Amino acid sequence: MRNLVEPRVRRVAADHLGVEEADLRDELSLVDDLAADSLDLAELGLALEDELELAIPERVLAEVRTYGDLVEAILLVAQEALDRSLDSAAVPAEVVARVVRAEATPGTAIERAGSLTPYLVQTLSEDAGRAGPGSRLEITVLAPDDTTVGRVRARFARLAERGVDVRVQREPLRPRRHPDAA
What we know:
Blueprint: H1 2-17, H2 38-52, H3 58-62, H4 67-89, E1 94-100, E2 110-115, H5 118-131, E3 136-143, H6 146-155, H7 157-161, E4 165-172
Parallel strand pairs: 3-4
Antiparallel strand pairs: 1-2, 1-3
């Protein structure tokens, strides 16, 4: 994402701060080196909102000191906006999940199935957390492509930090056949 956002931030910042694009280095202080005041930063923020079609909160710009800070802040806002749009636009995936303890005996796995709503994500995370380090969370996603698989993996990424092996695979959606079809 940096490769898409940073050049646009560089162009807008150079234009609004009256410097050459090449002069904008990460360590360049917008306040000390370029004498930008709060009004300059507010105007820069508005110009970046127009350029990137983002809402940039004032609190984000208040913490910016250097050009590098500006780029990182804008990248964070852009990533958050992208995450929100993916979450709100996505229909919950249908999943079949299984939590297997590290020392499990056959038949002791926890199995759940349904739409991957926030409630099911929380339930599966709690199940896997209780199973402890070395346990495994196996999720089969019914999805037309791998995009959904990536979203599901991201939802459970924190479990890996707790020693849970998360495995996500896709089962392609199959067209439904009408019972009367020959």
